[in-house]
Amino acid sequence: MPIPRTTKTEAIVLRTRDFSEADCLLILLTPAEGKVRAVVKGARKPKSKLGGHLEPFTHVAVELAQGRSLPIVTGAQILHSFLPLREDLVKLGQAAYMCELTDAFAPEGEENRALFDLLLSSLACLADEGERVLHYFELRLLGLMGYGPEMRVCPCCRAPLASPGPFSTSLGGGLCPACSLKEPGALTLSPAAFQALRYLQTAGLAAALRVRLEPSVMRELGQVLGGYTRYILEKKPRSATFLEQMDDLTGPLQGEEKGL
Q1: Do 7 and 67 contact (CB within 8 A), yes or no?
Q2: C-alpha to C-alpha distance for 86 and 127, rounded to whole angstroms
Q3: Which listed site, 15, 135, 231, 238, has its alpha carbon 20 to 30 Å from 41?
Q4: Distance from C-alpha of 40 to C-alpha of 176, rounded to nearest angstrom
Q5: Are 73 and 38 in contact (CB under 8 A)?
Q6: In this structure, are residues 36 and 108 in contact, taking their beta carbons and an 8 Å threshold?
Q7: What angle do CA 164, 224, 232 make, to 5 degrees?
């Protein structure tokens, strides 16, 4: 019998689900192969040596052997467990939201190193930065997947946007004054939220996190990006519902210094 071909790779665990009575199916994001499905044999058994290394949003080094239909995880080593995120329900929900969006948008088997790096760096910053890095991640993910909102020209008539205009989720961008009259359901944007969306589309993560935004602007970003994402996916992510419930329990965010 030929020895199964094995590969080693970094991966971020996006999701797990039961696969059989004892096995588990992993959805992994890898740098070179993109999104990959793999089976962990015996992961649901109490004495499993691999199960504890493959929790959602864990950064791991895995060894995969070619199975009959899906790769089989034969080894795993935790590189980053992101333990602080697991000790806070809000941060736990935010990490789950990032992974759920990645799973929903990323096609299977297509290399996207930029997406892997974005998710990894965002998870690493999430414990300290919270909602700011969450909205940065949403915006950059949309851009990498070809859905980046148009904030410099009107997506309807292509006229340059000289001033802040309402945001249309169906057209995917800010509208000029003339076209906004045709879209009564568009979301009104404050100048600060408009400028923040523009800036965060191109800023690196470190630069983006130096920007301080008022809680009201953060709420606008959440409404715009959440609504736009739901429009594209044609559904509301389950983790978004959880975050809304947590927000109702914990109350409004603490104020931050003014920035853009």
Answers
A1: no
A2: 10
A3: 238
A4: 52
A5: yes
A6: yes
A7: 120
Query: What pLDDT is recorded for position 153?
Result: 94
pLDDT tens-place string over residues 134-160: 999 999 999 999 999 999 999 999 999
**Which residues, in sequence order, are bridge partners of residue 11?**
60
Question: Looking at this protein, which amino acid is placed at residue 189?
Answer: L
Kindly report the CATH number assigned to the domain that includes residue 102: 1.20.1440.120
Let me know: does 176 contact 161? Beta carbons within 8 Å.
Answer: yes
Residue 47 domain boundaries: 6-81
Name the token pair of 136: 């940065």
How many secondary structure helices (H) and strands (E) does the chain include? 9, 7
Could you tell me if 178 and 227 lie in one domain? yes
| 256 falls within a domain | no
258, part of any domain: no
DSSP string, 198-223: HHHHHS-HHHHTT----HHHHHHHHH
CA–CA distance, 60 with 42 (Å, rounded to integer): 18
